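hey
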């Protein structure tokens, strides 16, 4: 699945956030978006994830040469993980189960998928632990597990290692690296850490003043 972003704009009140912003995510891999605070990175991700509407321009997903309808079927093929993961008042296992349950999957299938997702992010031993007792780094990994269990074709990560310790940062970078090797998803993420961008990214995008100003191939 390919994503084409064409000349999108977005303003809040009189403040322009995105200005004629365009990019094509045409090949599998990890795209890393960098730029100063307030330049529009998070807004860009929300719009691409179909969670927010742009003022003008076009967001288009393609299978082969066909543009996909922006309906619930498409939205279930893409997922956004925010910097601060919200945690339900239940166990780690039940937190990850939520998205599968609303899709109506059978219990044995749900358990198999959750066990695999928790193992992938290193949280299998904490499946029965209350979600709100996790550390901030573990909570972020829980958010990633909750996304991965849905098997998204495009995974958006908004500053996935913001405000967490070095150990969990390394684990999350390893998760991203494993996803890239397995080719599970196209990953589009934001970060302020240029060294991290070089470690995990295939393509570096630079945003400034609401525009894509640079493109570096890693």
């Amino acid at each position: 699945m390919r994503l084409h972003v064409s000349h999108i704009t977005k303003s809040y009140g009189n403040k322009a956030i995105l200005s004629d912003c365009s990019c094509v995510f045409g090949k599998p891999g990890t795209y890393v978006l960098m730029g100063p605070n307030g330049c529009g990175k998070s807004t860009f991700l929300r719009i691409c994830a179909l969670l927010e509407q742009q003022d003008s321009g076009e967001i288009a997903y393609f299978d082969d040469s066909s543009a996909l309808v922006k309906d619930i079927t498409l939205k279930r093929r893409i997922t956004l993980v925010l910097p601060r993961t919200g945690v339900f008042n239940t166990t780690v296992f039940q937190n990850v189960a939520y998205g599968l349950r609303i899709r109506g999957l059978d219990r044995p299938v749900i358990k198999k998928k959750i066990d695999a997702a928790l193992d992938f992010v290193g949280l299998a031993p904490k499946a029965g632990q209350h979600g709100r007792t996790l550390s901030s780094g573990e909570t972020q990994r829980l958010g990633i597990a909750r996304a991965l269990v849905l098997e998204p074709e495009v995974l958006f990560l908004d500053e996935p290692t913001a405000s967490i310790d070095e150990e969990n940062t390394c684990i999350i970078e390893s998760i991203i690296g494993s996803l890239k090797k397995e080719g599970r998803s196209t990953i589009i993420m934001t970060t302020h850490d240029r060294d991290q961008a070089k470690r995990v990214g295939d393509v570096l995008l630079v945003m400034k003043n609401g525009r894509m100003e640079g493109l570096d191939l890693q």
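The longest strand covers residues 2-12. The chain has one domain: 27-47+78-217.
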